[in-house]
Amino acid sequence: MPQRDALLAQTFVDIADTLVADFDVLDYLSVLTGRCVDLFDLSEAGIMLADTPGALHVAASSSERMGLLELFELQHDEGPCLECYRTGGQVACDDLAGASARWPVFAPEAMRAGFGSVFAVPLRLRDQIIGSLNLLRHQANDLAPSDLLIAQALADVATIGILQHRAADESRLLTEQLQYALNSRVVIEQAKGVVSEHTGRDMPDAFAALRSYAREHNARLVDVAEAVAARTLPAHAVVAGKPRHPPRR
User: Fold this and answer.
1) pLDDT tens per residue, range 22-59
2) How many CA atoms, within 13 angstroms, populate the side-chain half-sphere of residue 243?
3) What is the b/e burial string over 103-131, where b = at least 16 CB atoms within 10 angstroms of the residue's CB?
4) For the chain, where are the alpha helices, taking DSSP H only?
5) Which residues make beta-bridge pairs with 92?
6) Does the structural domain 3-143 have CATH classification 3.30.450.40?
7) Domain 172-238, CATH
């Protein structure tokens, strides 16, 4: 198997590692940019990812120089990565010398950095676009259609892995939040019982007293409940100054 084909096959194998539990997104993207440089005879490659509000950030670069150029692109809100992300389509410029009208700030800066051509493909899954992959060459020439096709395939599969990872994180967060809510509910019920037992309040009034105390002391309800349940906060202190109601039968 030719060396390039072997590297491409290994890259797709590495993409499969995005499904493991301890997958490191940033480490993987750094590997991907380096592989793109080798696979497509590039000078540099970089990846930008969008945050939840939709703002792009530099996620990975094949070198420090590439990272600085990507930051320049973001700071001036102009360039192939931004255009690719906003349009959702591939961007190709085989000669930056003729791109001054297209990118009046980025093109001259990229040429000063020693680049002659630039290409970008979106990181997308159907209609969802999460970033873009930037491919640069020192010389002014085109990138073969087959290379662009492979680059898009790598970007697409990487996008699936990233979204799967995000979904797993969100799922874990939701599970943790649910478990926290359930645990907190148990503690609050215990605290309500303590307040009711020691002050003669019914359960709804005990809960109202706990909430009022938490708000007055700028504390979380669950923290107040834990203190009451642990007897480090007296029940009578929670209801101090509150009208007393007999327990309901």
Assistant:
1) 556 776 787 788 888 988 889 999 999 888 788 899 88
2) 1
3) beebbebbbebebbbbbbbbbbeeeebbb
4) 3-16, 25-39, 64-75, 80-87, 106-112, 145-199, 203-216, 221-229, 235-238
5) 119
6) yes
7) 1.10.10.10
Residue 69: count of CB within 10 angstroms of its CB: 25
Partners of residue 112 on adjacent β-strands = none
Axis-axis angle for helices 203-216, 221-229 (nearest 10): 120
- Examine the pLDDT at 249 and tell me if it is beyond 50: no
Domain boundaries, the chain: 3-143, 172-238
Token pair recorded at residue 142: 């085109």
* DSSP letters for 223-243: HHHHHHHTTSS-HHHHSTTSP
DSSP structural state of residue 96? G
Residue 219 backbone zone (phi > 0: left; psi -120 to 50: alpha; other: beta) = beta
